[in-house]
Amino acid sequence: MTCVFLGATTFSEAVLNSLISQKSTVVKAVFAVPKTFSISYSKAKVRNTNFADLKSIAKKLKVPYHEINGTQGHKLSDYEGLIKKINPDVILVMGWYYMIPASIRNLSKYGAWGIHASLLPDYAGGAPLVWAMINGENQTGVSLFKLSDGVDDGDIIAQKKIKISANDNIKTLYDKATHTSIEILNTSLKQGVKKIKITPQNLSKQKIYPQRSPADGKIDWTWSADNIRNFIRAQTKPYLNCMV
Fold it and tell me: Do 37 and 97 touch, CB atoms closer than 8 A?
């Protein structure tokens, strides 16, 4: 199995290192996003607080490495020719910030696969772990799915639940989600795509949550003690988004 890998976060780094160690998939190219980048939903450049530099890994693998920052000449569509030449079995999108157009997804035999940190169709959209913790959920999960034209609405390849304990904060929950994501991805790749059972999502139950900004971190002291506690533990390191 060969892949083109897209990632930009510490989650991406962990998944990529796992792929290399498992040897179930051969990485043929790495695409990344710099620490600050342009994106459609923000007039100002966005800062990736969970940034990981994947360039050194690509260098060790001796594969092409390119950064996508949303500006002219640095969009994924600008590299269509390169990806077509590689002819990957799958495009793995693990910790990414841009929509993947069909023109890119269709360059791989089995499409583009992504991981979303929720049990889709629940908590689609931005910051799913943060929202789940703010809302006081006692469980969440991760979903491995095929990317499509919409927001987190593709067919499900695999899912697994994760417990949110009373002592979890966003860092410990993020670590749980990373470990579980690696587990279901490696299991699916080893199983082989021909044996994977694809399940369409029930999109009538989908609720899309927005991306969060610093303005969303303001605490309302009229909230209950439990709500304030959930709000704070959902936005501690690495996010640090709370304001009094």
Answer: yes
Angle between helices 170-191 and 10-22 (to 10 degrees): 30
How many Å apart are CA 132 and CA 118, to the nearest integer? 8
Number of other CB atoms surrounding residue 227 within 10 Å: 15
Whole-structure pTM value:
0.91
Contact 55, 35 (CB under 8 A): no
pLDDT at 244: 52
CB 67 within 8 A of CB 38: no
Helices marked H in the chain: 10-22, 55-61, 80-86, 102-105, 128-134, 170-191, 225-233
With a cut of 70, say whether residue 228 has pLDDT above it: yes
Q: Is the distance from CB of 7 to CB of 13 less than 8 angstroms?
A: yes
Share of the chain above pLDDT 70, in %: 98
